[in-house]
Amino acid sequence: MIVCTTATLARLSHVLELSQSVRTYHPEAKFVLGLIEDWVPETVAHSPWLDRVILMKDIGIPDFRAFIFKLSASQAHQAVKSSFIAYLLSYETHADTVIYLDHTMKLYGPLREAVEALERHSIVLTPRLCEPNYTSSYDRELQFLHAGTFNGGFIGARRNEGAHQFLFWWADKLNRDQWLDLVPVLFDSVVVRHPGYHAACWNLFEQSRQFGSVETDRAVLAGGPLLCVNFRDEKNEFEASLSSLTEQQAEFARKLQQQYNTAIQGHESNGFNRETVWSYDFYYNGERIVQAAREAYSERDNMPFLADPYACSNKHILGVVHEHKKEMNN
Amino acid sequence: MIIGTVVTKNNLAQAKVLAQSIKRFNPDVRFVVSLLERYTDQDHTEYPFFDKVVLASKTWQGNFDQVIFKYSAREASCFAKALLIDYIFTHYPNEQQVLYLDHGMEVLAPLRDLRSRLEQCSVLLTPQHLYTGAESHDVGNGAYHSGLIAVSRTTSGLGFVQWWIKRLERYSFMENDRAPQTPVEPKWLDLVPGLFEGVEVLKHPGYNVASGNYDEREITQAGYSHFRANGETLYIKHFDRIGEQERNANDPEYAKQHPALATLIKQYTARLDGFGWDRSYSAPWSYQFYNSGEPINSSIRLIYRNNLFLEQKYPDPYKLSNEFFEWGIFGEEPPAVMAEPEPSLDQSAIRPSLVRQRRKKPQSRSMIKREKKVRLHNRNKHSRMASTATVKLLHARARRSGASKKIISRSYTVSHKHARPFGNLTALYRGSVKSR
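C-alpha cells for the assembled complex are given below, as produced in the milestone run.
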C-alpha cells in the first residue's frame, strides 16, 4: 500500500506530521510526497520520514507550466491529486492500492475498513456527513449539496481499469469535490461511513462523532475510535464551528487541535518554515504573479504565443488581455 | 411488494395505464394511488386495478394545505411521494418492500430482478445516466432520478423516508433559477449514499429509460411485448414529455431510425387515449385555487414560500387571496376596501368655496430653456424618422465604397448639441462620406 499526499514546501510541517502518524499505524505502507515545487531541497529529499518525493512537474501533466500558472498554491494541492494517484498506480507497481490523504490530515488509528474495502472495489470515498439529521436544521446539508457529498481529502484507489477511468475523468473536472457526487453511479466505488474517518470541523457536531475521551494522539468517539482527522482550517472556520458543540465537546476539540498545532510548531522550529515562498508564484524575472494575471490567463485559454507564461510579466499578460477585450469591443 | 404513485386528476389516465401494466406482469403486487386533489370521485376509486386510492392530504399529519400552497402541481407531487412511501409503511405493516413509480412510467416485464436487489439493501436509487457524458447536467440537477425509488423496511430505510419528508417539506423545487442557493428536488438524493447504511445504486440499463437517456440506451424489440435496452430486459420505461415523443414517433423518418422506440410510444399513447387522456389532461388542479375560487398567482406562491414570517402568521393561506399577499408582504394588514360614496346628483351640493384654486407657479428661466430644448429635440426626432430612407441609401453607398459597418455608423451619427430647425436633415445631406 502507498499513502500519498501533495503539498508545497510551505506546508511541509503538516506533511511530516502526517507521515509520522502513517508510520505509526501503517508501518507496511510507503509514504510518497508529491511536491508542487520546481526543485527539491536536499533536506526534504533525504528526510527519513518520506519514502519518496516526486516533483509534480515530472508526472506527465501535459503543458505543466501553463497548467500550474492558472492555480494559486491552495488550488494546486487539489488540482494535481488525481494525476498523482494515477501516476503512482501506473509506475509504483509494488503496491496495488493507493490512499491519498490531504496534508492537513493526521491518522489516529489504522485505516482497516478502507483497506479492506479496497480489496473488493476500485474507489473508496468518505462522506462529509455520515448520519442523517432528522430535525429541520439543514443548513449544513444545503451547503454540502453545492460543495459535494464526499470530501476529496480522502481517496482510496486500487490498480485496475475502473480506478484509472475515474482518475482521468476527475482530473478533467479539476478534482472539484462536487463531481464526486456522481462517482457511486459512474464507477465501482464504496463509501466508508465509519464516524472515525475524516472527522473535521464541519462534522464534529454529529451524534456519532461526540468525543468520549481525548488523550495524546488517541481519542474515542461515540461511534468508535477516532481514526483520521482533517485539520483543514483555511478560512478559520474551526473556532466558529465549535459554537454548535457543547462546552465539554468544544474543549475536547480544542485540545485535539492544540496537540496538532504544537506538533506542527515543533516541525517548524526544525526549519520547515510556513513562510517559504512557492516557486511557481514568481515569473522568471522575479516578479510575483498577481491573482488578476492568473485569472486573465485562465480565462483566455488560447494564448498560443505565451507558451511559457512564466517568461512574461504581470504587465504583459494583463496588457494582452486588455488589448483582446478592446478588439472584441470594436 | 407494494407499488405507489402520486397523481393529479389530469394525469389519471397515465396512472391507469401504469396500474394495468403492473398487474399484467406482477399480479401479486398491490398498487396504491395517492391522489393529489381535494376530492376523489367514483371514477378513481372504482377502477379495478387501483387497490387503494388515498387523498394525498390524508397521508400526512402536518399542515398539508400550507405546504402545498408553496408548490406547483409537479413540485407538490414530489413532496407527496415521500409521504406516500411513509403511508404505505405504516398502513401495510406486513409489507417489506415499497416501490415508488412516477405516474408516467410503464412496467414492461416482471419485477423479479428489482425485488431480489431490494432484499439486499435498504434504499435503491436510480441514476439519471449510467455512463459518462451527461455529468455537467447531473452535477447540478442531481445524479439520481427521484421518480423511481425503492425502499425496504429496515431501520435505515425507514429513517431515509423520514429524512426525505423533512427536506421536501421546505425544499421540493423544480428549478433553481429563482434563487441560486435553493437546490432542486432530486439533488437531495445525492446526500443519501453518505448518510444511510445499505444504499445501492440500480446500475441496470433496463430501468428508467426516459427521453433524457435515449442516447445511451439502445432499445430493441425481442418479441411481441418483450423489449430490450442495451441488450438487457427493459423493465420500466418512463414516458416523460409524452406530447413531444408522440410527435417524434409519428414522424416516419424517426420511426425508421428507432423502430422499437416508436412502437413502444405508439402503444403507450394508444392505451392513454383508451382512458380518455386527450379529454382529461387539461383538467384544472384543485389546489390551484383559493377557497374563494380565485386562481393562485405563481408570484404569490414565491412570496409565500420565501417568507417564514408569512408562514407563521398565516398557516392557512388558502383562505386568503392574491390581493391580500400583494399587501401582506409589507407585514401589514391589507387596507379595507372602502365602499365608494354614491355620486350625488345635486351638483349644487359641492360648495365652490371649499375647492381651493392654486395659482400656476411662474416658470423659471431654466425651465423655459429646458422646454425649448425638448421641443427642438422632438422636432429633430421627426426629421430623423423622415430621413431613415435617405440614411439607408447613404449607408448602402458607403458600404459599396468599402467602409466598415462601425465607421459608417460613426460618421452618420449626428449629434444634437446645437439643434437647429431642420438641422438634422441638412447635416445629413452636408455630411460627407468619410472613407478610411
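Chain A has 13 helices and 13 strands. The longest strand of chain A covers residues 150-158. Further analysis is deferred to the final report.
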